[in-house]
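Honest question from a wet-lab person: if I give you the sequences of every part of a complex, can you actually get the arrangement of the whole thing, not just the pieces? Trying it with mine:
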Amino acid sequence: MKFYDGAAPNPRRVRIFLAEKGVEVPTERLDIPKNEARSPAFLKKNSLGAVPVLELDDGTIITESVAICRYFEELYPDPPLFGADAVERAKVEMWNRRIEIEIMTNIGAVALHTFDFFKDRVMQVPAYAEAQRETSMKKLAWLDGELADGRPYLTGDRFSVADITGMTASMIAGFVGIEIPEELSNLRRWDDRLRSRPSWDA
Amino acid sequence: MKFYDGAAPNPRRVRIFLAEKGVEVPTERLDIPKNEARSPAFLKKNSLGAVPVLELDDGTIITESVAICRYFEELYPDPPLFGADAVERAKVEMWNRRIEIEIMTNIGAVALHTFDFFKDRVMQVPAYAEAQRETSMKKLAWLDGELADGRPYLTGDRFSVADITGMTASMIAGFVGIEIPEELSNLRRWDDRLRSRPSWDA
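Yes, you can. This is the full assembly:
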């Protein structure tokens, strides 16, 4: 197999996932600013012109970071990062989606709608970026409330792919200058805990 | 268990899923326009004030339509709607996310940013709605190209939860007056195939 990687938040989700599993995979790193993910040859692998992409030995293509992580979870079940039983797996899915939809996407929209890099990739609406910056702060306060019971990770005692999505959101927040306010102490504790993991640097 | 339902696209995803499985679950239908999902009692179940919610007999709460579907997949494995082996499961995840991110979310943004119903729920940016209407048409053309090989369903011969997400996107498109252009014949064939399923009316 071959993992097509690049310097961007979504491939980083897979890199963190693999680091947490202790697995190394043959990797080709694309130069994203040089549009290598949008070359005619690469568009044949992923018509959306993006990494990550996993190519299996029989030519099967898997795109989308969470789909790739889910495939690796089946190849390398330990430690379980998508949950260890039906209820835990449902909770991981629930929290991965909550963090992605409520937190990461809102924060990401600030970058998508203001950075020059995305000018020819999305129809930028700067007023939307401003609205999403404000919305993001409300959602951070919501998440702080959710973590008020002091549990170490989103689904309880076990680190999961939902926390990895949180690590990615935290990185994107840094890009757009969104900081966790001092008073959101539950959220800060969780964020500090994630930053202390060796996989943070993946 | 109890399934909290309501007249909205995301709970409909779960209703279609259950219809495809041939399963009935004790259900309480909330009146969404009357804000029953945002009552203090219901906010204790889902702090995001939304359906669907699945409450298990021990009080465990699962929110997010896909998380609830995934839980039902484990309880009722046949027919498999999340894939039958590791590669197929990865492809279902990939396509479910592609349809959700590239199609459903873009079309949904047109409703979110123009409908009175969402006025106090999101910071509406009408210019963003217009941009997303245009983006949606480009994404429909992209999806038409992806379906040009004539396969019946997104991941191949087997209907999956990714197609259910497509059914939901199709319904939202109707709400905002987005129609599949005549020339996107691959997409039209797929959409017609989904509309002919008995679960369409779930």
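Two things worth pointing out. Chain B touches chain A at residues 47-48, 56, 60, 62-64, 66-68, 70-71, 74-75, 86-87, 89-91, 93-94, 97-98, 102, 122-123, 125, 127-128, 131-132, 134-135, 142, 145-146 (CB under 8 Å). The beta strands of chain B are 2-6, 27-30, 53-55, 61-63.
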